[in-house]
Amino acid sequence: MATVDFATLQATLHRVLLEAGLGPDDAALCARIHAESTRDGVHSHGIGRIPRFVDYVRRGWVDVDASLEPVQRLGAIEVLDGHFGIGIRNAIRATERGMALAREHGMGLVALRDTTHWMRGGSYGWHAAEQGFAAIMWTNTESCMPAWGATTQSIGNNPLVMAVPHRDGPLVLDMAMSQFSYGKLQTTRRKGEQLPIDGGFGADGELTRDPAAIEATRRLLPTGYWKGSGLSIMLDALAALLAQGRPSHDIDRVERGSGGGSCQIFMLFDPEQLGGRAACDAIVEGIQHHLATATSDESGRAVRWPGASTWRQRRSQAPLTLDDGLWEEVLALARS
């Protein structure tokens, strides 16, 4: 494993993205988001996504020169076309626009169509919470897991993000509709480890914790079995409806890589207009205290709530431990 400090990682990613053809501002933004995701422990959608993103840019699947175009404005709702531009830039700008609408209306909804992979969806929930806003966000994807009762890939894993702000530790949920993402399977396999619980089906049709076996069959397990499958379908339908864009089965036909042509929804809420920031803080503090005093299970680990581990990670100054092969691959891109 390679040991790298945060500043070195961010600077290296910045060089890679400049070399790939991104402008200075976009390269700096994407490098920061990828580095932060890595620092927060989400290597699969941080440094792990860099080689694939560079490949997509070089293929023309991500248009680095594209900009957001307004499609429709309807009070607190806006629809934007991403024109297959940089997914991180599109998502940050949609989040910012949603916050502006929320300041005006109490709630703002930005629906984005024909964008590209937003990488780690939680980045935008954290960004909103750090600015004092609550959020509900999600994206649809190409078909990458079976619907409940199917063996073929027929629905997206359609990640969902929710956030409630607090200056000393917000609540931030970032979850796919699959029990584990393909990125998590990859990082677990590279470590030579098994998943902590069943994550999909092997070649024999039985549930397994072997990430390589699941990667081979591509039969991810929906979170909550039929419930996760149903929620994935509804998130897909609502994303396509609100963004006037493509549902998963139409994204499948785009052929611009993972996430190309997806729809994303950014709902932002201003607590200052919904009882006040102090009331919001009291809600979060009450929930966290209630959970912290709950009796832990047989594992002896602390009771978890969304965002707690990331909040601790963000305050650590410890160097980052990266997969050797992946770090060397990124360094090679910086030298190319």
Automatic annotation (TrEMBL):
The gene is yiaK. It comes from the Bacteria. The keyword Oxidoreductase applies. This is 3-dehydro-L-gulonate 2-dehydrogenase. The keyword Oxidoreductase applies. One of its GO terms (molecular function) is 3-dehydro-L-gulonate 2-dehydrogenase activity. Its EC number is 1.1.1.130. Transmembrane segments: none annotated. PANTHER family: 2,3-DIKETO-L-GULONATE REDUCTASE (PTHR11091:SF3), OXIDOREDUCTASE-RELATED (PTHR11091). Keywords: Oxidoreductase.
